[in-house]
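[job 4471] stage=fold_predict status=RUNNING
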Amino acid sequence: MITLRFCESQIERHIVLEYIFTFFVYTTNKGDGMEVKKEIDELLKKLHNSIDVTNRVVEKDGVQVGFIYLKSMTDNAIFADAIFEPISRFEGELSFDSVKEIVQANDVQEVKKADILQKILKGVVVLIFSNSEKFLAVDILSFPSRIPSEPPTSPVIMGPREGFTEDLKTNVTLLRRRLASDQLILEESTVGSSSQTKLVIAYLDGIADTKIVKEIKKKLSKIKIDGVVDSYYLLTLLSDRPDSMLKQIGCCEKPDIVSAKLLEGRIAIIVDNSPIVLTIPFVLLEDLQNSNDYYTNYIYSSFLRFIRLFGLILSVFGPGVYIALQLFHYNVLPINYLITIADSTQQIPFTPFIEILFISLLFQILYEVSLRLPSYLGLATSIVGALILGDTGVKAGLISPPTVIVVAIAKIALYTVPEQSAQITILQFVFLVLGASVGLLGIVGGAIYVLAYANTIENFGAPYLAPFSPFILSDNKDGLLKVPLNDMTNRPKSFSNEKKERLDD
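[job 4471] inference complete, writing structure tokens
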């Protein structure tokens, strides 16, 4: 019997274990042990003898046990404590059943031979026995993971500050803490032929529409892709109109928001290695809302939602309307402002359209640069770009102050609805071209087309512009206007769910 009770420290224990490993491997290599070694050799061949694949064969009382795992995903110290030390201390006959009982891990299960390779690639330790045809999988996966913290995209003044991480188990735990109910159903699936990415479909039984759940599962089962490294890969693959510019699936980094959406009857998709959780169905109104709205006064929340809507409209139409007024409809401008524009633009060498397009592109370039540079360099670049280049450009007579102000306001207003920033940026340039070529008539026509197009989109049965088109009175209690919580007695009718009542009258 091997004992480590006289080792004074954890480090000494692990050093002794390494010597024991070496002894057992040496002893084994002198014996027959061809069956266990043969199985390991076959697995090593399938894994192309990768440098992070570790295998050991030990023998005790004539019974050989083989271990194979990825050292890049498994801590040797945990392996020694959870698997090797219990086996070395065991006084009885080693077998599949006895080892299954003595290893110190929460997830210990029999695995089929066909599934061994996939288990190893997922970081599981596989045990092979000379006296049994069964294989044992022990999950002691250990890798660095980020601590749940406040997401940079969803800061709050009041309310929970936890955010999802890249670890699937942590994200499921954060969700389960908020919904400690037997109605919460979590179903695991896998996507990606090469990445074998795990994902969890979460919904509340008796609240979420089972037809939508089945449709999501059907779409996921039809996805044929080599790898999914982030949840954003599934956005296009799950959208009803994958070629559309408009966002059709919700994205969220906060467990409190996802929990609230599940309570409304939505379905969440949690993807391993991604802090972004997808929510289905999705309507445009969701991006005009914010988690702060539910942790502050409802009147103030309503006011902020109108501010966000105004910011969205200003960002999309601002530059286009400005160039249209300057080129085609200058007679509607106040005479004093018209004189100011004339004075500031008479020395500019570019046409108004080229000027505003140049400034818009300059702002976009500065944004991309500041996004990718380290924070200390990004701040310096923003100051240089916004102040020095802008001020120098005006003094040099390359750009006019009114144009700089209009573009700057439009770019700042864009981030009142940051979730729609990609779509708003594209529409900004589209309406800029329409305003410069056709004037206000082109902008009005383009706005009608965009609204009509958005009105045709249905995301898993939910109208994109609901609850305004179609108009649903009860859903407007949490629309642009927000009423007190005790008045919101029903779940949204904008999409299908099985239980409409939330709060008794």
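[job 4471] summary: Residues 1-8, 19-34 have pLDDT under 50 and may be disordered.
[job 4471] exit 0
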